[in-house]
């Protein structure tokens, strides 16, 4: 079988060859050490993991984050989520064709008593918010257990190869997300009172204010004085024809495969949704050598940072605003996608359909907080705090800062002498949560002499790395705070160090030098692709901010200085009339994004709403038109929300069907939440199984009475 692992990447190291033997449908394959089953299968070109027992539809990955169960397979006789379970030597993996056949029961195994561990603070989630809170609590000497279900801490930071926006001082702006994750983990591990439990899953909050956790197959109850929910977010999805085909999945799942597991999951992708998640996923695809056919956004303008959109456009990716997806089509996996333009009533306009060949459709239409633990803790009176996306959907920079604030608040609530949270912390957190501000046209300098930076950012966003690296302190932000645009002080002489070009997270600064040639200028352009892909003497196509071709120009120099943090600085020679308008180098050719002839409309009543139980929009509409106003009624009649994902994926889509039928949200009874939020083998609750040698004693604690008034 072909190996689809990414062997060359401008930022990430090569993954290396697989060394762990396993079988898929009896065929011998190799996985990398610690690689999860789903990624190992993708690395060998396997996209379909089984077929649904109801209608035989092909099944593959969807969330790649343990939130659904669409990627389930049978491993050594047991049904498991392939995105969460590492390959073990000799593991026998089979498709989940209908239902798993359990191995025969053997002799009664050993059991152990279920332990209850007291701790001052239990943190659920080891992403930017959870780690930042753990650091602050550790500094105050608070006993902490942090629980995360992944092998590596950092949450979504692990998937981010791009440099972060925000403030250098407050949230490591200008540093790549994966490097920020490592820094936070290192800081947390330095705290003696903090214990980090990876590959551990919190499954429920109970009425006695205890939290059930499964670690290494062993079950334990943790009894915290305070609980911090920093569980992040799960991706929303859409209803459209073919939305459950293998190859339709979330942008976060794509980033997991490509950036964490270094698997070339696709050849050609199309993206639905123009928020930061979708825009960044497109950029990550280009870095991995994957063609990006296009991106469609229903709104008149993308909701993500304009610098992210501009970056894609000037690399050759078309953005189709006021468009929606109609269908994904293919026999066993995605082969093409059809989109159409929307009218003022948000309805597809007949005749505007465009169909594109692709093997993957990324759905990036927003996030929902993973807040079931927060809701249940409040219901049972367990003092609980929330940080990051579990509290409010925002950027990871904001999650770091809210985690820091919550850590200090919790330490104070536990009686530590840490003082009040500085007011400027709250102000900074609010700025980092800010939506993009005003967009105004750039001020391109009039000068045609000397050397100076040109800023290609037109939108107010929280960002200041360029001001921090300029050795002449010649760059400042307009107005007060982080939200203004950068301005160069022409009274200072630029020394052409190119540090501002290298540090900009949006790749939105070029350096123009008129000093060396009489008829042409040299332009330094940031380029986060393989250094070997460009060489002096090559001719490249340069584009302006809107992605329009300015011309073809020769490359003079390609260098990768240490301060550029693995980015390349490409120096080109350009005529005077275009030099200051150059914003980037085209990465992919125009033919990649051409539509196929013809198009097709979706059959709306055939669209799948509940992917676990294969319930269609038509089935739900019939019940709603018959008077159903309770999601639990629909669940009893159709099994929607009853599947293996635990009702995490479809409630928003069912709510949309109610709205389309003219039923007000206030008239709809929500699904009853399951008491256990994650799947757990029943034997675990009885104390069966578990790995030997796990250390369960809690970190040092100074037990106090539970503090009321958590937020």
Could you describe the 3D structure shown?
The structure is a single chain. With 711 residues, the chain is of the alpha/beta class. Among the domains are: 1-103, 2Fe-2S iron-sulphur cluster binding domain, sarcosine oxidase, alpha subunit, N-terminal domain (Ubiquitin-like (UB roll), Roll); 116-233 and 369-432, FAD/NAD(P)-binding domain (3-Layer(bba) Sandwich); 451-593, no CATH class; 605-667, Arc Repressor Mutant, subunit A, CATH 1.10.10. It is built from 17 helices and 35 strands. Helix 6 links the parallel strand 16 and strand 17. The longest helix is centred in the middle third of the chain and has 18 residues, at 396-413. The relative contact order is 0.13.
What would the average pLDDT be, to the nearest integer? 88
Instruction: State the share of residues found in helices, binned by percent.
Output: 10-25%
Strands, total number: 35
What is the C-level CATH assignment of the domain at 116-233 and 369-432? Alpha Beta
Determine the strand fraction and express it as a percent band: 15-25%
- Coarse shape: globular
- Number of helical segments with 4 or more residues: 17
Distance between the termini: 53 Å
């Amino acid at each position: 079988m072909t190996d689809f692992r990414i062997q060359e990447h401008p930022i990430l190291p090569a993954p290396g060859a697989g060394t762990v033997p396993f079988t898929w449908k009896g065929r011998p394959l190799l996985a990398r050490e610690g690689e999860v089953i789903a990624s190992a299968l993708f690395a060998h070109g396997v996209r379909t993991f089984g077929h649904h027992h109801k209608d035989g539809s092909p099944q593959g990955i969807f969330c790649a984050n343990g939130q659904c169960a669409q990627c389930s397979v049978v491993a050594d006789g047991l049904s498991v989520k392939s995105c969460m379970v590492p390959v073990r030597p000799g593991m026998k993996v089979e498709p989940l064709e209908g239902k798993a056949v359990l191995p025969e029961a053997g002799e009664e195994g050993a059991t152990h008593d279920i332990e209850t561990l007291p701790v001052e603070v239990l943190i659920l989630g080891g992403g930017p918010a959870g780690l930042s809170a753990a650091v602050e609590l550790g500094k105050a000497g608070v006993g902490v257990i942090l629980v995360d279900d992944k092998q590596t801490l950092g949450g979504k930071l692990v998937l981010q190869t791009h440099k972060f926006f925000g403030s250098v001082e407050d949230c490591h702006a200008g540093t790549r997300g994966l490097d920020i994750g490592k820094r936070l983990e290192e800081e947390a591990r330095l705290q003696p009172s903090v214990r980090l439990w990876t590959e551990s899953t919190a499954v429920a909050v109970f009425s006695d204010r205890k939290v059930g956790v499964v670690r290494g197959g062993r079950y334990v109850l943790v009894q915290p004085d305070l609980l911090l929910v920093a569980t992040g977010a799960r991706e929303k999805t859409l209803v459209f024809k073919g939305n459950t085909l293998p190859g339709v999945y979330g942008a976060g799942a794509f980033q997991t495969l490509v950036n964490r597991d270094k698997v070339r999951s696709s050849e050609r992708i199309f993206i639905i949704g123009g928020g930061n998640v979708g825009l960044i996923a497109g950029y990550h695809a280009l870095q991995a050598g994957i063609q990006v056919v296009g991106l469609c956004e229903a709104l008149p303008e993308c909701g993500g940072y304009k610098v992210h959109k501009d970056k894609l456009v000037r690399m050759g990716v078309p953005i189709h605003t006021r468009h929606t997806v109609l269908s994904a089509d293919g026999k066993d996996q995605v082969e093409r996608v059809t989109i159409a333009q929307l009218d003022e009533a948000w309805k597809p306009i007949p005749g505007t359909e465009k169909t594109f060949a692709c093997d993957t459709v990324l759905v990036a239409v927003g996030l929902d907080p993973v807040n079931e633990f927060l809701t249940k803790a409040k219901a049972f009176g367990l003092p609980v705090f929330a940080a990051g996306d579990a509290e409010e959907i925002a950027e990871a920079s904001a999650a770091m800062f809210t985690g820091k604030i919550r850590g200090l608040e919790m330490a104070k609530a536990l009686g530590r002498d840490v003082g009040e949270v500085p007011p400027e912390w709250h102000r900074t957190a609010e700025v980092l949560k800010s939506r993009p501000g005003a967009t105004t046209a750039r001020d391109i300098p009039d000068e045609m002499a000397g050397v100076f930076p040109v800023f290609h950012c037109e939108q107010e966003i929280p960002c200041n790395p360029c001001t921090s690296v300029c050795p002449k302190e010649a760059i400042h932000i307009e107005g007060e705070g982080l939200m203004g645009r950068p301005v160069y002080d022409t009274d200072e002489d630029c020394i052409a160090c190119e540090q501002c070009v290298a540090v900009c997270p949006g790749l939105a600064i070029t350096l123009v030098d008129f000093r060396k040639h009489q008829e042409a200028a040299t332009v330094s352009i940031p380029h986060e692709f393989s250094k070997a892909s460009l060489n002096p003497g090559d001719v490249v196509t340069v584009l302006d901010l809107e992605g329009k071709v300015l011309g073809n120009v020769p490359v003079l120099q390609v260098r990768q200085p240490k301060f550029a943090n693995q980015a390349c600085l490409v120096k080109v020679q350009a005529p005077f009339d275009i030099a200051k308008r150059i914003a980037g180098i085209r990465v992919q050719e125009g033919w990649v994004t051409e539509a196929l002839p013809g198009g097709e409309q979706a059959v709306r009543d055939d669209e799948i709403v509940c992917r676990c139980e294969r319930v269609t929009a038509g089935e739900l509409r019939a019940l709603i038109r018959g008077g159903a106003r309770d999601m639990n009624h629909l669940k009893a009649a159709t099994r929607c929300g009853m599947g293996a994902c635990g009702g995490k994926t479809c409630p928003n889509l069912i709510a949309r069907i109610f709205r389309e039928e003219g039923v007000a949200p206030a008239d709809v009874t929500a699904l009853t939440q399951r008491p256990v939020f994650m799947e757990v083998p029943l034997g675990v609750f009885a104390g069966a199984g578990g790995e030997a040698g796990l250390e369960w004693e809690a970190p040092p604690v100074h037990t106090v009475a539970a503090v009321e008034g958590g937020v």
